[in-house]
Write a structure and sequence with these properties.
Number of domains: 2
Strand content: 15-25%
CATH class of the largest domain: Alpha Beta
Number of helices: 14
Order of helices and strands: HHEEHHEHHEEHEEHEEHEEEHHHHH
Helix content: 40-55%
CATH superfamily of the largest domain: PAS domain
Structural class: alpha+beta
Mean pLDDT: 89
Length: 382
Amino acid sequence: MDARTSRSELELRRIADNLSAVIDEASFGLSPWQAVTDEIARVFPGSMASLHRQDFVARDLNFLVASNLDEAYFKSFKQHYAFVNPWVDVWKREPNGAIRISEQHSPVRLIANTEFYNDWLKPQKTLDAAVGMKIDCANGILIHLPIHYAMDMAERYDAAIAQVLKQVRGNFMRASLIAGRIAEAEQRTAMKSALLERANCSAVVVDRNLRLHDANQSAVDRFAEGNAIRSVADFLSIADRNTHARLRQAVWMLLNGAPEAKSRLHFSAAGNLWSITLARLPAVGPIAALNTAPQLALVLFEQAMAFNVVDANLPRLTEAFQLSPAETRLCGHLVRGLTLADCAVQIGISVETARSHLKRVFDKTGARRQAELMLLLLNILR
């Protein structure tokens, strides 16, 4: 081994040692993760380093730091191009901890006809070559560290960056493990607190697939009864199939950040009206950024009233809002948890006629959404 090679290896080891210290500090929250990508970009001048946590189920890039990347390209990557990046499919198949050099394992020429390359990578002109590392992948979430640079730097940077990443791989894996443990602890605390505060109703915590993560005693008792809600193979299940499908969709949309996600649902079971309230549990803190824990939702079930109470008090709606008999009948079926189409069948009218009735009910009550209308009707009927 000649002196030049020896110095090069010593220099790379020094770089790796310094980077290891920065990673360890970030994993315990002593410095931001941005410091890690800044250090990489500093010791490999002209490179762009990024670290991100990408949720493919929710289609969300919920953690991203990058150094030496233009702000406009940073924003466009986060908003769109991360989800059309053809290299992601390659990384999904790689084992955890894999380190790959793009020109050796997935050359840029193979993606030359893609939207990602032509509209995002190519215009930057200096990012065609890359080395990357897969840090973790679970629950549809990939944690990835790519380092890009110009093709004419590949001969100098490919092997050098791969060697540094190999030496700091253990630090990143430990950081991911620590983040996971912290995320689990934070979620347990959030779950226990949320359930404790809702002792007056049946409360459960689920993920986007309705897998049960926790439940209070009231919910456990309801599961045992099996009339309204159930626990089936550790998944939340609603006795009414239509309501189960609506709840599943509502939880999915809530945890995926959809602006039109519903926060309240109603259904009927065993002769009673039930109200469902949804809330997203807080996201974990910045120390747990590199984790693959699923997002969780709090689901509250409250028995609103019995059918006989609804039937007896329907005249109150007519009096309170000057509803017609047809509009009152529609409201009575709505509060039982029926869809508008089901209401039309029960009353014996077309869906279009039911929709016209509902529009007039909105006008007379001042409600703007069906969930708001339901709350208003239930308060009057109690």
